[in-house]
């Protein structure tokens, strides 16, 4: 959201040497600092809540897409795999994305605003400050990638008998393979997070400026859902190949770390460009629903906390 620095306060000449102390100005400045801190707190909480709502709704779709990414198969084949495994395994691996996405969105919105507003107040141009803040938020989000790493392994049918649950997967990876194993696939995540955040915040703010405004809560919620859904579907499609590379790299445990370019070349040679986009239809459908829910829930929670 756009933030404009306050107007400069000019003290009249008659008051400069009058001995009058401007307590009102000091009090107002202190109030602004407190409200800014409160605003930052709201950003973190709203991101957390929006992510929790979203993951609870979209996890089964996400798991279906994961199987298509991993094996390069169609929807019916991936759905058949999940159906044969039963309902017990359908929500297996939900805890890592629930924790990761909740913290990730909290960081995404909170860190973005904490970086952007001081930059704009310091005189940095509006668009540059948004770009820097979005890239910083995306980089900080990458610190949560151990959750993505464990989620990948828990959703892979090859590892159903290797790990009992999320905590067991974290323990085995850490103790048996070392901390470094948590960060296998870091480069594609960094290449995805920062630029995708830049796209999201730019497009979201432009949508707010140019789309019509509605007075009814239903009209506002619908607009927030649709704009978030379209932006999310577009971004997820643009960055889909990086997610395929990430899944490919993270589907193995131990051994030499494969570089991002090496994995991309291998996938291109074995699958071809068309099969690298297997699952993209389900992916943008999931992203449409997911980011629509996130955007609408985020704005709703902000109003509740206002």
Automatic annotation (TrEMBL):
Solcar repeats lie at residues 38-118, 125-210, 219-304. PANTHER family: SD08549P. The keyword Ribonucleoprotein does not apply. It is found in: Mitochondrion inner membrane. This is Solute carrier family 25 member 51. It comes from the Eukaryota. The lineage of its organism: Eukaryota, Metazoa, Ecdysozoa, Arthropoda, Hexapoda. It is a multi-pass membrane protein. Belongs to the mitochondrial carrier (TC 2.A.29) family. SUPFAM superfamilies: Mitochondrial carrier. The keyword Glycoprotein does not apply. Keywords: Membrane, Mitochondrion, Mitochondrion inner membrane, Repeat, Transmembrane, Transmembrane helix, Transport. InterPro entries: MCP_dom_sf (IPR023395), MCP_transmembrane (IPR018108), Mito_NAD+_Carrier (IPR052465). Gene3D superfamilies: Mitochondrial carrier domain (1.50.40.10).
